[in-house]
Amino acid sequence: MSTVAVTDATFDAEVKNSDVPVVVDFWAEWCGPCKQIGPALEELAAEYGGKIKVAKVDVDSNPNSAAAMGVRGIPALFVFKDGQVVSNRAGAAPKAALKSWIDDSI
Asked: Considering 23, 24, 31, 55, which one is annotated as catalytic?
C-alpha cells in the first residue's frame, strides 16, 4: 500500500472515519525536511500493508485541514486512531525513528 493524498474535502472520510490507524503527514512541495521524510513514509506505508494508512496533506492546497489541526510548522505528523489524535510530532526524523513512533502510537 502506498501513501494516500488527502484533501480538505476528503480529510474526514480518509482520516477520521478510517477503520485502521492513520498517520497524517502535513507537508508542502517547497519544504526540504518534508521531502527528506517522504521516501521513508512511502516505505513504511508499504511495510505496514493494510495495518495502517499513511495520508499526505499538502498544506498549500489544503489549508483548512492544517488550520483545524493547529499545524504551525511542517512536516507535522499525527497518528489518528478511531478518529482521534493519539500522538503527534513535528520535524523530520530517520525512518527507524518514525517507525518506532508509529509502533508506540498504534
From this structure: 31
- Domain residue ranges in the chain: 4-104
pLDDT digits (tens, 9 = 90+) for 79-88: 999 999 999 9
Buried b (16+ CB within 10 A) or exposed e, 4-25: bebeeeebeebbeebeebbbbb
Report d(CA 49, CA 44) in Å as an integer: 8
Per annotation, catalytic residue among 15, 23, 24, 34: 34
Look up 31 and say whether it is catalytic: yes
pTM value? 0.96
Question: May I ask the CATH class of domain 4-104?
Answer: alpha beta
